[in-house]
Amino acid sequence: MTISGGVAQRRPGEASGSALRRTDQALYAAERAGRDKVEIAA
């Protein structure tokens, strides 16, 4: 079993939808990077 993840911290004043989009983008970046990766959203 392998696990990839994306992580983002909500910025002050940022809408929750925007934070979720950044988390989703980080997840896809982790999947592209290979197995057992975690990417942190910028």
UniProtKB/TrEMBL annotation:
This is GGDEF domain-containing protein. It comes from the Bacteria. InterPro entries: GGDEF_dom, Rev_trsase/Diguanyl_cyclase. Residues 1-42 form the GGDEF domain. Coiled coil: none annotated. Residues 1-23 are annotated as: Disordered. It comes from Deinococcus daejeonensis.
